[in-house]
Design goal:
Length: 231
């Protein structure tokens, strides 16, 4: 398979790696109505990506990509990249891509060969959100069933705000990729702007899961790109 047919031309100067960044970039908003997950289809949510490394040929094009251990991403002009993890241990737990007033957090988990982890996690997210006083429900999105979530949060002056997000859970061969869409892009449905650039970005993610046995649901740590400054 020739990969990169959906990729934007990368601009290496636009990639900024910030290992000290905090991913709690919660954008206070008023509220949003989530679409019901009715009319679900059996369409493969990974038909256009994200891909497993065995499904693509990264040498078939000249697109510049950045490798964060088991995740390979295709940056585009204006994209900011931040890493979230433990600075002391050097463990990288998640990657945040930002563009404009929106962001997409990526995290990778081990999954069973038989699948089913995405459905379990969606149920857990909905239950945890309700316990936190928020609201979450399933809806149809560009990657199959997604979770639309609204969480109450306190503003800088003690005012009541809401954090709105869309959560994509996509399973591949023994892995699950979670994408949490935040900010302005979390307010729109489907592939409407400004979510469209993040949909394309998510589709172009390539997963390189190692063969190590792991417990389903275990977080798979990421890594700094080769040559990136440490400490």
């Amino acid at each position: 398979m020739i990969f990169g047919r959906k990729a934007r031309e990368a601009d290496s100067d636009a990639v900024e790696i910030d290992t000290d960044a905090d991913l709690e970039t919660e954008d206070g908003v008023d509220d949003t109505d989530a679409e019901e997950a009715e009319g679900a289809t059996d369409v493969d949510p990974r038909a256009d990506g994200p891909f497993d490394i065995d499904e693509v040929d990264l040498d078939a094009d000249e697109v510049e990509r950045v490798e964060f251990g088991p995740l390979v991403i295709t940056p585009f002009e204006g994209l900011g990249l931040q890493l979230h993890g433990d600075k002391d241990s050097g463990v990288v737990q998640a990657l945040l891509g930002t563009f404009g007033d929106s962001g997409l957090e990526l995290a990778l988990f081990a999954a069973p060969r038989t699948g089913g982890l995405a459905a379990e996690l969606r149920e857990a997210i909905i239950e945890e959100t309700a316990q936190a006083g928020g609201h979450a429900q399933e809806a149809q999105g560009p990657f199959g069933t997604e979770v639309r979530r609204v969480l109450p949060m306190e503003g800088p002056e003690g005012e009541q705000l809401f954090h709105v997000s869309r959560i994509w859970l996509v399973e591949g061969p023994r892995w699950l990729l979670r994408g949490s869409l935040m900010g302005r892009a979390g307010l729109v449905g489907g592939e409407e702007a400004p979510a469209d650039v993040f949909v394309e970005f998510f589709r172009n993610v390539v997963v390189k899961r190692d063969p190590q046995p792991r417990v389903p649901g275990e977080l798979i740590h990421l890594a700094l790109p080769a040559g990136a400054p440490r400490g």
